[in-house]
Design a protein that fits this description.
about 400 residues, alpha/beta, Metallo-beta-lactamase, Chain A, Rossmann fold, 6-stranded parallel sheet, 12 helices, about 25% strand
């Protein structure tokens, strides 16, 4: 895609990365990711955020600037909303091409520009609420929003056009498919981007629900006609809708979730798998939506997104050496790190010479303030009675999720 003028005097100059690398070295991006940079041109020119040196992205950014009629030497200000490398890795090299440009960041961002990028010259910390006049009717206002999702983060607002450059907030995985704006995509593609926005939030931002809520409250009286994030679509059709979704995401962190269930199951020799079929029958009896993941085959990224949004979590795993089956324990550790509290939980699983998985799961659930329902442990292969009990317990659990106030 060439540069796109999203408002008079404001251009998207981002790049699309279609790579099988892991985002942050952790999260799969089979559909890629966009790295969105923006140019605001008054009498002076500012570029807002840069890119990571990734699959030719820096060369692509320079080409995008050229298609907007600009060269790096035309840039007066480099606005770094956030210094994480996916926004800033190109910063050191870009400064060599734009030596007179002043780098603007939060005080913590100035520190990280030095530590991460080696940039110390012509750098200035901007204050919360500070306004930069670019001339020609364009200005930028900076609002500090720490821990959305790093301590250095700020957002930038252009009041004349009412565009909010929101950094990682309101962004998501998924490269752009030739379309930049939310109101131009097909309904099925819109659901894809909303789903990838949820996965991005669950994987990266979930620990920071309170800072997200504070940031939204801080900006609630700001007139916004367009939200331009660092990743994913630009939201102009109904910016209020994406804000509502973000408020809902923040609520998920504390247990205000969807009346649905995430089923995670593992099986060493097939015994727990047999009971899993009965569990699914029980949930289906109550017409409750369920996401099903086999561990360890399913990636943690997608599991976290499901657990993050759903009120109910069912975990089926055998005992392994008097503890939880290790791949399931790793998944639970990921959930624990993201502090997904306030869920309802049901555990089942087989054991051979000794139990232990249930005890470890109960300790995990207690730490995250999960409400446990009656569990089911069985020795060896399940009996017909075990299967009937599993179905009934799962149905009761599903009813509890469905009928919760």
């Amino acid at each position: 895609m060439p540069a796109v003028e999203i408002k008079p005097g404001i251009w998207w100059v981002g790049v699309n990365v279609r790579s099988h690398d892991l985002f942050e070295g952790l999260w799969p991006i089979p559909d890629g990711v966009s790295l969105n940079s923006y140019v605001v041109k008054g009498e002076k020119v500012a570029i807002i955020d840069l890119v990571r040196e990734w699959s030719g992205s820096s060369s692509s950014l320079l080409h995008q600037l050229e298609t907007a009629g600009l060269a790096p030497s035309d840039i007066d200000y480099i606005i770094t909303n956030h210094l994480e490398p996916d926004h800033s890795e190109f910063l050191g090299n870009f400064r060599r091409l734009a030596p007179r440009a002043e780098l603007l960041a939060t005080p913590k961002g100035v520190e990280l520009a030095r530590v991460l990028c080696g940039v110390t010259e012509n750098v200035r910390a901007v204050q919360d609420g500070e306004q930069l006049d670019l001339g020609g009717g364009k200005s930028l206002v900076f609002a500090h929003v720490p821990f959305v999702h790093w301590p250095d983060t700020m957002v930038t607002y252009e009041p004349g056009s009412q565009v909010l450059f929101s950094c990682d907030a309101f962004g998501g995985f998924g490269a752009l498919k030739g379309i930049l704006f939310d109101d131009q995509i097909l309904p099925e593609d819109q659901e894809f981007y909303y789903r990838e926005m949820l996965r991005y939030y669950a994987n990266i931002v979930a620990n920071f629900a309170k800072p997200v809520q504070r940031a939204i409250d801080k900006l609630k009286d700001t007139s916004i006609s367009m939200i331009a994030p660092s990743h994913g679509l630009i939201w102009r059709g109904d910016p209020g809708e994406v804000v509502k979704r973000y408020v809902k995401f923040a609520g998920y962190s504390g247990g205000k979730c969807e009346k649905a269930i995430t089923l995670l199951w593992s099986s060493m020799y097939g015994n727990t798998k047999i009971v899993t079929d009965a569990i699914m029958r029980g949930v289906a009896r109550e017409n409750v939506h369920m996401d099903v993941f086999e561990v360890p085959l399913a990636d943690h990224s997608y599991i976290l997104a499901s657990v993050f949004k759903n009120k109910g979590v069912i975990v089926g795993a055998p005992t392994y050496e008097v503890k939880m089956f290790p791949p399931m324990a790793q998944v639970l550790n990921s959930i624990q790190r993201k502090r997904m509290t306030g869920r309802n939980a049901f555990h089942y699983g087989s054991y051979g010479w000794s139990g232990g998985a249930l005890q470890e799961f109960e300790s995990f659930a207690q730490e995250l303030k999960w409400e446990m329902s009656e569990p089911l442990e069985f020795r060896g292969a399940p009996t017909a009675e075990d299967l009937l009990k599993a179905e009934d317990l799962a149905a009761a659990f599903a009813r509890n999720i469905r009928d919760a106030t």
